[in-house]
Write a structure and sequence with these properties.
- With about 300 residues, this protein is of the alpha/beta class.
- The protein folds into two domains: about 5-235, Aldolase class I (TIM Barrel); about 245-305, Arc Repressor Mutant, subunit A.
- The protein is built from ten helices and 13 strands.
- The chain has helices at about 50-65, 85-95, 115-120, 135-140, 150-160, 180-195, 220-230, 245-260, 265-270, 275-290, and strands at about 5-10, 15-20, 25, 40, 70-75, 100-105, 125, 165-175, 200-205, 230-235, 265, 290-295, 300-305.
- Helix 7 links the parallel strand 9 (about 200-205) and strand 10.
- Helix 1 packs parallel to helix 2.
- The longest helix is centred in the middle third of the chain and has 14 residues, at about 150-160.
């Protein structure tokens, strides 16, 4: 399939059927921690990238062939709100399936009324906010020149006023950049004014686009989580298991996912319900065929598509 991948294990959304409606690395940001590499097209102008009916047909077809999933999730290779068809896609899905719809966004375009209207019918929206000071924002997110952190914050706050369902706000914490006390205190003040149902702390757990980007330890995350209060949580590892797919289907699922995000052996075991031994054997075969490659990051082996 061209636009649909998974279902994949998501630390935030359970089993998530991904929908990728943006060409690779079209984004409003060029984040130093991005797991799929540097942004090649940093844009803020929305457009229709693909035939939306083809996307809808592909999603509906996929949902008839797989087991239960927790969410249909718009995410993938870039910023999904750059796609001007997003609103129509969500509305059509709500008519044709009972599966909840999630949108994972960096939140940078929520200052636009048309974007807020496009995602208003999603069941949950997951924006991110990694910084509240301009210098830190530019250091971490490396945004399009037309974007300022105040504009991004204002957009998220406006969306909160208009959106009656749940917002789960993610904060990516990076060592020696946005983990200093003064930045965290500023962040706490802004975040409390947004009123998200969940504040989800993350740190660098997958290979970032900039190799010098450092992660925080568990005890540091726990301390910061207390600072943000009872709505805050540290994003934990995925624990559900899936039905074991056939080998051909398994290979397709893994390849399509690895094109968009690197996975560990544990991720793949959770996706497929194979044993560690079985998964290692299949991954070894795929490496020998030149379909995937592996590399070490932070004591974990990650796999990615070639």
């Amino acid at each position: 399939m061209q636009y649909v991948f998974g279902p994949v294990p998501s630390r935030r959304l359970g089993f998530s059927l991904g929908v990728d409606i943006i060409p690779a690395k079209y984004c409003t940001y060029d984040c130093i921690y991005c797991q799929i590499g540097k942004t090649t097209n940093r844009e803020i102008d929305r457009r229709s990238f693909f035939d939306p009916q083809v996307i809808i047909n592909e999603i509906i077809d996929k949902t008839t062939k797989i087991g239960p999933v927790d969410f249909i999730t718009f995410s993938g290779s870039g910023e999904p709100t750059l796609n001007a068809d997003l609103g129509m896609l969500i509305r059509e899905l709500k008519k044709n399936t009972a599966i909840p719809v999630a949108v994972i966004t960096n939140g940078s375009l929520l200052y636009l009324e048309e974007v807020r209207k496009d995602i208003i019918e999603a069941d949950v929206v997951l924006p991110s906010l990694d910084a509240v000071s301009e210098d830190t924002f530019r250091c971490i997110n490396r945004p399009h020149p037309a974007l300022a952190v105040e504009k991004v914050i204002s957009g998220i706050k406006t969306f909160r006023k208009e959106y009656s369902r749940e917002i789960w706000l993610e904060i990516m914490l990076i060592r020696n950049i946005n983990d200093e006390t003064i930045e965290l205190e500023r962040m706490k003040k802004i975040v409390s004014g947004i009123g998200a149902e969940r504040v989800q702390l993350n740190t660098v757990t997958r290979p970032p686009s900039e190799g010098s980007t450092g992660r925080l330890q568990d005890r540091e995350l726990a301390r910061i989580c207390k600072l943000f209060g009872p709505a805050c949580e540290i994003i934990c590892s995925f624990e559900k298991t899936a039905e074991i797919p056939s080998q051909a289907e398994w290979t397709d699922i893994i390849i399509e996912t690895l094109k968009r995000r690197p996975l560990t052996l544990e991720d793949i075991v959770n996706t497929t319900n194979l044993s560690h031994f079985q998964a290692k054997g299949r991954l070894r075969d795929m490496e020998e065929q030149g379909l995937i490659k592996s590399y070490l990051f932070e004591d974990n082996t990650f796999y990615m598509a070639t």
